[in-house]
Amino acid sequence: MKSIPHKRSREVEAWLKREIAEQKVRYRKIVAEQDALAPKRDKWVAEFLQRIQTRGTHVHFNMMRKVRPEEIPVKPKRKFRVVF
Amino acid sequence: MPRPHIEPFVDRDVPFRKFTMPGFPKGMQYKMLSLDPDNGACTMTVMYEPGYRQPPGMSYSEYELFVMTGSITVGDKVHGPGSYFMVPAGITIGALSSPRGATALLFYNYGEPSFVESDSDHPRAERARFAAVNAYDDMQWTSTNFFPATAPGCLVKVLHFDERTQAFTFLYCMTPNFWQDNISYHDCAEEAYHIWGTSWMMQFGDLPTGGYFYRPPYINHGAFGCKLGTLAIGRTDSRLYNHFHFNPWTNIEENRERAASRIQHWMPDLYKWINTHGHNHPVDFDFPHGHAHGDVPHHHGDGMVEHRHKAKRRRRK
Q: Looking at residue B302, what is its pLDDT?
């Protein structure tokens, strides 16, 4: 039993409504901040794709394998989203 | 709609506010980290003001409490930093006070925060599931034991494991100069809070002390790095499996499809059975059958996956 059925009071409903509205604002702010991070992220991705060809990518614990150049994925044309 | 993807969010950037939820005593402040708009389940950083007093009582939702600074007294026992409680719905805990104040994390996993003054458990409470431990003093760090595993230097202390959903709550630390060069996603939702330290992820950048995320399933995260070490607490809502890969640009749909394809290859017989069986309501003989209790969403081959119904009456012989 994770939760016991009960009736919410009007005050609780109002509190939740306020919190949900504030969370929407918070979410939009996060999306905007993450969009602004795109140029840095592109640089990090380029460095990552380089590293996994030289040092390797982690497969399990300390097991790594070097990725061949033909395995490197191509960036799709769609927008690069990180927050969903 | 379940909780949205909140990542990253740093609670140090926002002030504490008075917690005015009906039923709770005065003297508690909070910062909302994430909230499920449907059922009110939420995670909060809370501050018990010096002198806070709460009578014995229970919550309608299961909750977890982790003390970060200061101390709280429950009954006659003092619980300092690292103290962790898993309190099932309806379980009454003793009077709680904080003579000198404390900060903590509160996870209400299945419903909105609630407090009902009571000296005894609710009739439907499951007392055996209550757990309390001091994660700093009473437990030691271990390597992660899931396969494939995170890179060496990420250690865990499992605080709570739900045997039915395999959801778990854990402390984790990243040693100084930890790095892991792959991208991961999971079939479960996960959330985490940085108690101390800064770590880095290729998608989101640095997550400092007070940093938090709630990440729904199938969202890419990693590569990972940590220069000076990090101590954090994390929680999943079901089994965690590390789906590793190295494509930075895949989306949720592609990741989910890959996970389903992997199940097809790892458990071909089960996959076939689930796909071809007209009724997708499998029964776990270890747990109550949803048809008797109507508590498990399922469908009858029509794709209406949120189907529920009340318990069927049994005929007397």
A: 59
Residues B214-256: tens digit of each pLDDT: 999 999 999 999 999 999 999 999 999 999 999 999 999 999 9
Contact call for residues B155 and B142 (beta carbons, < 8 A) = yes
Q: What pLDDT is recorded for position B271?
A: 87
Q: Average per-residue pLDDT in chain A? A: 96
Nearest to B310 by CA among B298, B297, B292: B292
* Stretch B18-24: mean pLDDT: 94
| DSSP 8-state assignment for residue B244 | E
Query: Is it true that the peptide bond before B223 is cis, omega within 30 degrees of 0?
Result: yes
For residue A76, list chain B residues with Cβ-Cβ distance below 8 A. Answer: 249
ipTM of the complex: 0.96
Band (B273; pLDDT cuts 50, 70, 90): confident
Please write the tens of the pLDDT for every residue from A9-48: 999 999 999 999 999 999 999 999 999 999 999 999 999 9
What chain B holds in terms of domains, given with CATH numbers, is: 6-138 (2.60.120.10), 142-266 (2.60.120.10)
Q: B316 CB contacts (<8 Å, ≥6 apart)?
A: none
Residues pairing with B307 in the sheet: B298
Answer whether B22 sits within 8 Å of A11, measured CB to CB: yes
What are residue B110's phi and psi, to 5 degrees? -135, 5
Query: Which of 271-290 (B) contact A at CB < 8 A?
Result: none
Contacts of residue B184, defined as CB under 8 A and 6 or more positions apart, other chains included, come to: B220, B221, B222, B242, B243, B244
- Window 3-22 of B: residues touching A by CB (8 A cutoff) are 4-9, 20-22
pLDDT recorded at residue B31:
98
A58 in Cβ contact with B153 (< 8 Å): no
Rg of the Cα atoms in chain B: 21
Q: By the CB < 8 Å criterion, does B147 face chain A? A: yes
* Cβ atoms within 10 Å of A18's Cβ, excluding its own: 12
Angstrom CA distances, B45 to A9, A15, B64, B191, B210, stand at: 24, 17, 12, 13, 9
Q: What DSSP string describes B78-91? A: EE-TTEEEEE-TT-
Q: Which of B21, B34, B90 sits opposite A12 (nearest CB)?
A: B21
